[in-house]
């Protein structure tokens, strides 16, 4: 089921034959936006009238598992989306889709095009073919290269907190992290490298800091805390508010292309000083 109304509205566009060939999705939850896009891609490629949990063919399963040959989901290779990735996409989609109606690509972190990959992408989208549909995902459209952004139909897919799926792995890391830096207070900067950099992808950090924020908001509202963090209940409300403000500032900075190591180390030092 598509959770976001803006992405769900694409179904109507498709049914009315008003589809663009490329969309730029601006969202505050890239993982959930991708899940919703995959649900829409099922609608887009269904030979019949789409029904959720239909078992008439294997197409939806292939899309969910990202094993459909005519679906390409692309992430940055290192710090950027590379020219070679775009050239490979062009080559792959130079032929008609065999298993589905459309060749569909999804490019995550669209703000990470560099000049070279952007130029290659432009050549791909300036003369669109009828059977190719593309989706670019970003958390800030202003960071996307203008020549690409101007050729996309904008979709603002924002999620409320209750629409965002809980990620138990990241939430447990947030609890473990707070226990270390707030209660144990040992070698926090080294702990950033040992715990976070080895276990979280860059796109996970926004979710991670939102969990930190929710824990401190619960603390401020005197709600129940996990057992490992019970000691935090002794903190003064003024200190809690300062830490909430700091975490909010970090979340805002994550919307830009920041150096995560520097950001995390700065965060720990400032948390210890509050």
Which helices and strands appear, and what pairs or packs with what?
Blueprint: H1 5-15, E1 22-27, H2 30-45, H3 59-64, E2 71-74, H4 83-92, E3 103-107, H5 115-125, E4 132-138, H6 146-149, E5 153-157, H7 168-184, H8 188-199, H9 205-220, H10 237-253, H11 260-273
Parallel strand pairs: 1-4, 1-5, 2-3, 3-4
Walk me through what this model shows.
The protein is elongated and about 65 Å long. It is 49% helix and 10% strand. The protein has a 5-stranded parallel β-sheet with strand order 2-3-4-1-5, with helices on one face. By secondary structure, the chain is of the alpha/beta class. The longest helix has 17 residues, at 168-184.
From N to C, what is the helix and strand string?
A: HEHHEHEHEHEHHHHH
User: Quick one: biggest sheet?
Assistant: 5 strands, parallel
Provide the CATH top-level class of the largest domain: Alpha Beta
**What fraction of the residues are assigned to beta strands by DSSP?**
5-15%
Strand order of the largest sheet: 2-3-4-1-5
CATH topology of the largest domain: Rossmann fold
The CATH architecture of the largest domain is 3-Layer(aba) Sandwich
Oligomeric state of shown chains: single chain
Radius of gyration, Cα only, in angstroms? 21 Å
Low-confidence stretches: none
Beta-strand segment tally = 5
Q: How far is the first residue's CA from the last residue's CA?
A: 43 Å
Structural class, from secondary structure content?
alpha/beta
The backbone outline, from C-alpha atoms, is elongated
Could you estimate the helical fraction of the residues in percent?
40-55%
CATH superfamily of the largest domain: P-loop containing nucleotide triphosphate hydrolases
